[in-house]
Inverse folding.
């Protein structure tokens, strides 16, 4: 019985130490860089210093970047307020995209056993092509590929690849309006 509290204490200490390891990055990225008073050029410099590869200065305040996966953001892309990028695996956003407020891009998921229990977190990459528009509060789920020129409507939940140019909407998102004049490459 005497060994049990020690193992519980050991587990608590181990978890705290693991959390503390990520604290400096979390502070730099999700507190300092995301602050409304942070100039865009300094925000981009902080992101680059921790391995977020951005070729744009147009990342608004309040965005959250978590996980260990690579994040690549293309030139000319605009990311609006309060977006979340859960990068357990890689997130690639092409050039000249418009990401509206509150968008969530999630790469983490879990396997579910037959008994309903969850396994450890696993990552699946997300790729968003060039010249895409992602509407407010849209959710992009793990493993999704979005082709060049695709529009995702506000509030849509993208569960599968969107490979044909056009507008996708709904829960789950489906092609609603095919592109009649696809954007030039």
């Amino acid at each position: 019985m005497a060994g049990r509290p020690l193992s519980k204490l050991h587990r608590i200490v181990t978890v705290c130490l693991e959390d503390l390891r990520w604290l400096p990055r979390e502070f730099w990225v999700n507190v300092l860089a995301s602050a409304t008073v942070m100039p865009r050029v300094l925000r981009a410099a902080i992101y680059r210093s921790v391995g977020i590869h951005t070729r744009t200065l147009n990342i608004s305040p309040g965005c959250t970047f978590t996980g260990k996966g690579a994040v690549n953001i293309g030139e000319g892309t605009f990311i609006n307020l309060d977006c979340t990028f859960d990068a357990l695996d890689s997130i690639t956003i092409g050039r000249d995209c418009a990401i509206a407020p509150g968008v969530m891009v999630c790469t983490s998921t879990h396997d579910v056993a037959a008994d309903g229990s969850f396994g450890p977190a696993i990552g699946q990459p997300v790729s968003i092509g060039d010249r895409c528009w992602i509407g407010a509060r849209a959710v992009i789920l793990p493993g999704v590929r979005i082709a060049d020129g695709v529009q995702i409507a506000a509030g849509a939940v993208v569960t599968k690849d969107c490979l044909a140019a056009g507008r996708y909407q709904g829960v789950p998102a489906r092609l609603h309006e095919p592109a009649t004049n696809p954007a030039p490459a």
User: Anything to note?
Assistant: The chain has a mean pLDDT of 90. The two ends are 68 Å apart (CA to CA). The chain has two helices and 18 strands.
